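Cross-check.
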Amino acid sequence: MGQNERYRTAVSVSGQRNERESMMKPMVLCGANSYEQKYYFNHAFQMLPEPIKKELQIMCVLFTEDVGGVLTLEFAEDGTLCFQVQADEHDYLFDEIGSELKIRQYQKEKRELLQSLELFYRVVMLGEEALD
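Predicted model, tokenized:
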């Protein structure tokens, strides 16, 4: 954890906590930062359809507007999509409980989208075979 972070968590789309450190850096899909009021989208995923890119933007921005902090959606080396949440140690308005609840809400409501993104990443970016 960075010296200015008081909270950091990673939760996969399936709900598993990802506490292990990987040798490879994760591939960031997108993210939003409530401190700088900015949204980031990785141009390596530019081939995604516009409605999906827009939905990701809405998800990330609403998350940081609701609970604060920084949210990034990242692919682990095995293709698992994870929600990474960080908050500054001096951000007393950050809602840690709300963060966990919002992630669970997204996992439930956006399940199909999130699983499709994992499949896309595994097939297009990692070159794996799509299983029927």
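Strands lie at 5-12, 27-33, 38-41, 70-75, 81-88. The radius of gyration is 14 Å. Passed to J.P. for a second look.
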